[in-house]
């Protein structure tokens, strides 16, 4: 894979200061990307060191530590879980356009929250995922030999390729690639004549079409979500 989350996003993932949509996208990416996985481990270690350092500056009393330990043990002993069996995460399956795709286990909670597939001309399909967050999250399927109208963004568009590939003016993207675009980008994603594509799409603001008849959608509010 050639495209990765920027380091700031990986740091936010390591410290937990990240929204659930991007957290799931990054978690899925690092499952198959050793480079980003190592960076996350490094950032987690740095965050732990910072936490220890801040703790020594404001010393915690023995009584406070004892209370924390007691509360932790109470929580553990009251949990209804069997820790003798390792947790096994399984992938989920989705069906779109007559095809079945396996979705990584890291995204299985998203599959459980999927809405109905919407079709645009029988070539592009989207299913919105209800996360009750400010960003718009969806699964996006593009059939073979299709070009999405050129557009830009008022906010950010994060895309994680789950299956197949697509290209635009800036590059070629295959399974596992993570791409993040903003208002400085104008692009028209397209699939090849022999390859379709399934992506996870995260939009913080609607798309703004910049060419052709699709610009009519810009008149309906601030733009359009897929």
UniProtKB/TrEMBL annotation:
Residues 137-200 form the ChrR-like cupin domain. It comes from the Bacteria. Coiled coil: none annotated. It holds the Pfam family Cupin_7. InterPro entries: Anti-sigma_ChrR, Anti_sigma_zinc_sf, ChrR-like_cupin_dom, RmlC-like_jellyroll, RmlC_Cupin_sf. This is ChrR-like cupin domain-containing protein. It comes from Vibrio maritimus.
């Amino acid at each position: 894979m050639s495209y990765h989350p920027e380091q700031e996003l990986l740091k936010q993932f390591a410290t937990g200061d990240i929204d659930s949509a991007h957290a799931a996208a990054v978690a899925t990416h690092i499952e198959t990307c050793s480079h980003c996985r190592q960076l996350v481990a490094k950032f987690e270690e740095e965050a732990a060191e910072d936490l220890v350092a801040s703790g020594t500056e404001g010393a915690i009393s023995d009584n406070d530590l004892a209370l924390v330990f007691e509360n932790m043990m109470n929580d553990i002993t009251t949990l209804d879980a069997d820790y003798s069996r390792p947790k096994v995460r399984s992938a989920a399956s989705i069906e779109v356009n007559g095809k079945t795709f396996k979705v990584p286990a890291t995204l299985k909670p998203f599959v459980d929250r999927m809405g109905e597939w919407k079709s645009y001309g029988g070539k592009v399909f989207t299913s919105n995922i209800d996360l009750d967050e400010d960003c718009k999250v969806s699964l996006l399927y593009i059939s073979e030999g299709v070009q999405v109208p050129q557009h830009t963004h008022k906010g950010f568009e994060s895309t994680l390729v789950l299956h197949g590939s697509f290209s635009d003016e800036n590059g070629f993207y295959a399974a596992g690639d993570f791409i993040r675009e903003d208002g400085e980008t104008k692009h028209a994603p397209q699939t090849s004549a022999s390859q379709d594509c399934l992506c996870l799409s995260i939009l913080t603001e609607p798309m703004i079409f910049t060419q052709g008849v699709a610009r009519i959608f810009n008149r309906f509010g601030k733009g359009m979500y897929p």
